[in-house]
Amino acid sequence: MRLIFFGTPDFAVPTLARILDSSEHDVVTIVSQPDRPKGRGRSVVPSPVSALAQERGVPLLRPEKVGDAETVTALREAAPDLGVVVAFGQFLPKPVRELPSRGYLINGHASILPRHRGAAPIARAILAGDTVTGVSVMKVVKEMDAGPVALVHELAIGDDENTGSLTERLAVVAADAIEEGLRAIADGTAHWTEQDDARATLAPKISPAEAVLDWSRPAAQLARHVRAFAPTPGARARPSGDALRILAAHGEPGAVDRPPGVAQHAPDGALRIATGDGWLCPTRLQRPGGKPLDTADYLRGRPISDGERVGP
C-alpha cells in the first residue's frame, strides 16, 4: 500500500523505521509537528520523526494545522491508500481522516483500549497501578482514541519500571502491532471491533501540578507516582524551600513515628520520608539545574537532616 505517516516524538520512530525498511509498503509522505525550540540554547530542531524523514529522503510536511487547505491538497496529491498515525500530536479533521483511498487512518495507541484514552496513557497506567499495558491498533475517528480496534499487543509492566523505560519498550511493541495490522488490512483479514465506551477511562496530559508529592498518601502509591513522572519532569518535593526532584524511589511498609513528609535517616544510613502509610525511600534525586544523582551522592552536597520536613 501507499502510506502517509503521521508522527512526531521518539516513540513513533521505531514504527516509521520498520515501515521504511519493509518492502511491503511505500511511505509516500510523512507529516510531523513543526520544528520547535529545544534545550537550554532554545535552538530550533526537527522532531525525531522529521529527522528520520530527512535522513531517508521521504517527502515531509510540517504544518501548524494538518487540516489547512495546502496540507490537505499535498496529501491528496500523494494518493495514499492508507494513513498510519503514531503519537502525532494534532487533531486530525475529517478531510484528512477520510482522504486515503481506503477511507481511513489507523493509529497505534499505547494502551489496551478502551482503558487510558488520551495523551498520557503510559504515565497514567503506572499511576493507576496497572500490571499490564499494550498497544492497540484502531481506526482514527473524531472522538479521541474511540475508534474500532483491529488488534492489541500486550506488555507486562515491570515492578520498578518508570515512564521512560516503559515508553521505550512500548515503542517497539507499536512497531510490531502496526506491522501486523498493515499486513491484515492489505490481505483483507483485518477484523474491527467497536470499543465498549462504558469501560473507557481517560488519560489526559500530565500537568505540572500533579508532579508534587502528597505525603499523606500511602508509600506504595507515592512510589508509583515517582515512577510515572520519571525521568521527566520528575516527582517534586520542596525541602527547605528549595525544589527537589525524586526520580527513583521504593515504598517501605512499617510503622511511621513522625508526620507525613518528615525525613528520617534509617539505621543503614538511607534516607526515608514518612508518608500516610509507610516510608518512601528515594534512591535518585535531582535539584533544578543539577545532574540526577544517587541519594547518597546528593546528600553529600545538599544534606537533608533527620527530622527535616521535605516538601509542603
Largest sheet: 7 strands, mixed
| Rg over alpha carbons | 22 Å
Q: What is the CATH domain class of the largest domain?
A: Alpha Beta
Strand content: 15-25%
Q: What is the count of DSSP helices, taking H or I runs of 4+ residues?
A: 8
CATH architecture grouping of the largest domain: 3-Layer(aba) Sandwich
Give the beta-strand count: 15
The geometry reads as: elongated
Number of domains: 2
Task: Outline the low-pLDDT stretches.
Answer: none
Here the CATH topology of the largest domain equals: Rossmann fold
Briefly characterize the structure.
The chain folds into 2 domains: 2-199, Rossmann fold, CATH 3.40.50; 208-301, Formyl transferase, C-terminal domain (Methionyl-tRNA Fmet Formyltransferase, Chain A, domain 2), CATH 3.10.25. The protein is built from 8 helices and 15 strands. It has helices at 13-21, 48-56, 69-77, 94-97, 121-127, 163-187, 219-228, 295-301; strands at 2-7, 26-31, 36-38, 43-45, 60-61, 82-86, 105-109, 132-139, 149-156, 235-237, 244-252, 263-265, 271-274, 279-286, 293-294.
Structural descriptors:
alpha/beta, Rossmann fold, Methionyl-tRNA Fmet Formyltransferase, Chain A, domain 2, 6-stranded antiparallel β-sheet, 8 helices, 24% strand
Question: Could you explain how this protein is built, in words?
Answer:
By secondary structure, this protein is an alpha/beta fold. The chain has 2 domains: 2-199, Formyl transferase, N-terminal domain (Rossmann fold, 3-Layer(aba) Sandwich); 208-301, Methionyl-tRNA Fmet Formyltransferase, Chain A, domain 2, CATH 3.10.25. It is 26% helix and 24% strand. The chain contains 8 helices and 15 strands. The chain has helices at 13-21, 48-56, 69-77, 94-97, 121-127, 163-187, 219-228, 295-301, and strands at residues 2-7, 26-31, 36-38, 43-45, 60-61, 82-86, 105-109, 132-139, 149-156, 235-237, 244-252, 263-265, 271-274, 279-286, 293-294. The strands form 3 sheets. Strands 5-2-1-6-7-8-9 form a 7-stranded mixed β-sheet. Strands 10, 11, 12, 13, 14 and 15 form a 6-stranded antiparallel β-sheet that branches. Helix 1 packs parallel to helix 2 (48-56), helix 1 (13-21) runs parallel beside helix 6 (163-187) and helix 5 (121-127) packs antiparallel against helix 7.
